[in-house]
Amino acid sequence: MRGTTLIPSTCITEEQLNNKRIKLAETRESIALELFDEMNTKDLPFKPEDFKLDSSVRNIAQNHSEFFDLQKQSYSRLVQYAKFFGFSKWQPSFMIRKDLTRHLNYLKEDDKYLNSKNTQSLTKEELISAIEDRGFPTAGGRNYSNKLQEFTDTLSIKNPSISDGLIVWTIICRVGLQKQNSIGKTPSPINDQ
User: Fold this and answer.
1) How far is Cα 118 from Cα 176, in angstroms, rounded to an integer?
2) pLDDT in tens, 65-107
3) How far apart are CA 111 and CA 109, in angstroms?
4) Residue 133 and residue 127: Cα distance in Å, rounded?
5) DSSP letter string, 78-124
6) What is the pLDDT of residues 106-158, one digit of tens each?
7) Cβ–Cβ contacts within 10 Å for residue 149, how many?
C-alpha cells in the first residue's frame, strides 16, 4: 500500500491494515462513481462501459487522446487521481503529475516482470500488494492470483501509445464497473417494510 504514514508498516496490526484497505477501496469506488456521474451529465463522447474492453479503449485513445493528457488535466482532476492511488493530494499539480507518471512507469515495468513469472508462485501479501498498486480493491476478496493475472495484462503493454491519463481513467472506470456489477449481484441489506 502506497503513501506515507507516521507509523511504519511493521507496527500496523492485521486489523488496522485491513481497515486501511477497506477505506481505500471505498475512496476508489467513490471516485469512480463521481467520474461516472461526470460522464453521464456532461456531453462526453464516451461512457463508463466504453472502458470495459481493451479494443474500445484503444479506439478512445485514437480519437480522444488529448482529453486524457496528464499535462492538460485540471488540478482537481489530478487531486482525484492522487486520492485514487493513495498519494498525497496536498501537492502542486506538477508534483502530482510526477508521482502519477512514476507510479505508472513502475506498474508498466512490474507488469512486464509479472507476465514473465508465474503469479501462482507469489505469496498472498505480494498478490494483494500488486493488485492494490494497480488501483483495484482487495478487501474481502479471493482468487488474488487470477485477479492479478487479469490486471497485469494491461493496456500499457499491449499498446504503448495509450497515454498515462487514459490508463488511469480506464482503471478508475473498471473499478466502478466492478463495483456496479457486485452491487447488481448482491441483494440489498435494507429491508422494505
Assistant:
1) 28
2) 899 999 999 999 999 999 999 888 889 999 999 999 999 999 8
3) 5
4) 10
5) HHHHHHHHT--SSS-HHHHHHHHHHHHHHHHHHHHHHHTS-GGGS-H
6) 988 888 888 788 777 888 888 888 888 988 877 666 778 877 877 776 555 56
7) 16
